């Protein structure tokens, strides 16, 4: 019996020829990641072990959640991370002005590459599966242990295969595919599993759309999301990769715990209603939802293709008087390119606030907190109770074009309604 | 590891944002985190919970973010143990790593009401509802997780490994 791409990558990092779902393995780590919320706890635990960082080039620290520092306590946390990075001379510590939202930044900077095993003390670490890497979120103590040992333990996950067939309609992309999928299987539909996204629709999907899909695998409870690397992956990593990379592919006779085939030809843009990413409806059923705020950005949808989509909708239009639109480029490089392409000018002329890269409002940190009773449409990844602010506020998850159209309409809208 | 306390019941998909909202994540101080534990699910919880109390919850407990602050807040609030139908995977690892006992037992979740007095023998996986007398057997804790518990948490386990050079699961 063959192996899936996830099993092959884990086997290679465990020094094994074969691994099977359910087996407990110890695997070598290519990159271990922390941020300004999770790294401080990890550092506290790490210092108790009493050894240096296993390899300074493989520990990446990105203060991105509450940065630029939102208050004194957050500043103290960021300072602790900065001092740790200095103490161990970590080359991949990123300061504001040179940084980005971690899951936009690491692939862009070539720090994570196909075939890697990556762990991050951030649940959306699964984003890197879009490159054909095994990447998963862990907690701070697991990060501390990995920073000391350069390895961690995994239970090899069963794989679930998702095959997307058909032709996507205009304004439908990776965000809609993943929201639809979570709507179909539920927030624990892939609990402990690998979600392998395949099929002709995925083969045509650009890298930014693939990152969006892998990013939200955790919202279905998955351990990792993964997309077979191909020429689109190759074109993305060539010139960026800081280490040699390897493409793995699932064997034709690999075993799957489940296989789902979706014909997505008729799929509308999808919207996840509060308070679950699985509470998904087509945008045509969301048109009565008036909004106070729209957020375009995050590790889910803060990349250049996302900003281009939003700009296509917003060009020559104005944000509705009752709406605050916040646009957050995912990295400084995305910001710079958006500036060069004229996208930032479009956002500002439309009446949007454009922010430096930060996770900010996505987790209710800062830069766009909601009051009681307020509603936001957001390109982010979670719409839990209190996620963007007051527990009595609401977040509706959508793609960047829908968020932009909604900002113009003052209610959730299909892009074609405002164009 | 035996605990006895009152049951606090919660539903399915209790996410880490309601366990400890991100607005309080600008600190790692366990006591500060505990003061806001479960705040967006039950604002009275942190004040009313008593040392030794037990959380009994539905499926996928701890889903969402990787924040270890979530099990830390629960543990520091005085909760002795979490019994759930199932746990999200990052929360599951985090709970063991910081020494918060957790047990998977759908039957116990069905057989325990809010406020019931519950006795838990974590090592044996036995859960008893002292109000009804009903006893439930939880899913066994995987042997490797038992080793982490026996070592006194992951960091102690790693310290031993750094000294001895064994690999995960070898010893």
Describe this structure in words.
The complex is a heterodimer of chains A (419) and B (171). By secondary structure, chain A is α/β, with parallel strands linked by helices. Chain A contains 15 helices and 17 strands. Chain A has helices at 5-13, 39-49, 72-87, 102-108, 140-149, 174-185, 200-204, 207-215, 231-237, 298-301, 304-314, 332-340, 343-350, 400-409, 415-418; strands at residues 24-28, 31-35, 59-62, 117-120, 134-137, 151-155, 159-165, 194-198, 224-226, 258-263, 270-272, 280-282, 293-296, 324-327, 353-354, 375-378, 394-397. In chain A, the strands form five sheets. In chain A, strands 15-14-13-16-17 form a five-stranded parallel beta sheet. In chain A, strands 3-2-4-5 form a four-stranded parallel beta sheet, with helices on one face. In chain A, strand 7, helix 6 (174-185) and strand 8 (194-198) form a beta-alpha-beta unit. In chain A, helix 6 (174-185) packs parallel to helix 8 (207-215), helix 11 packs across helix 13 (343-350) and helix 11 packs parallel to helix 14. With 171 residues, chain B is of the alpha/beta class. In chain B, 33% of the residues lie in helices and 18% in strands. Chain B has helices spanning 16-19, 30-34, 45-48, 69-76, 89-98, 106-111, 143-151, 154-164, and strands spanning 2-9, 54-57, 81-84, 102-104, 117-121, 126-129, 135-137. Chain B has a seven-stranded mixed beta sheet. The longest helix of chain B has 11 residues, at 154-164. The mean pLDDT of chain B is 93. Classes of the chains: A alpha/beta (419), B alpha/beta (171). Chains A and B meet through strand 1, helix 2, helix 3, helix 5 and strand 6 of A and helix 5 and helix 8 of B.
In a nutshell, what does this entry contain?
The complex is a heterodimer of chains A (419) and B (171). Chain A is α/β, with parallel strands linked by helices and 419 residues long. Chain A contains 15 helices and 17 strands.
